[in-house]
Design a protein that fits this description.
The chain is mainly alpha-helical. It is built from four helices and no strands. The longest helix is centred in the middle third of the chain and has 33 residues.
């Protein structure tokens, strides 16, 4: 689906005059920069908040959460 959208955009843009294509490129570049900034901001917030969590709490977090997530979320039998 995402490829379909990109292809549709490309089909429209490729027939525009070069000056308009450059405007589209600038616009898309700005959107990409905003997206990257949003992700960086999200990761920064997660990092800042995780620094305030006491070591005792980190020690209580199961190390096998990726394997046994159904156990911890729904009470299913542990895998290992």
């Amino acid at each position: 689906m995402q490829t379909d959208v990109a292809e549709a955009i490309f089909d429209i843009v490729k027939v525009l005059p070069k000056t308009k294509q450059e405007k589209v490129l600038t616009f898309v570049s700005e959107l990409k920069a905003e997206e990257e900034t949003s992700l960086e901001s999200l990761f920064r917030k997660i990092e800042e908040r995780s620094q305030n969590i006491p070591d005792e709490v980190w020690e209580e977090i199961p190390s096998d959460g990726s394997i046994n997530h159904d156990h911890y979320l729904y009470g299913a039998k542990k895998q290992k």
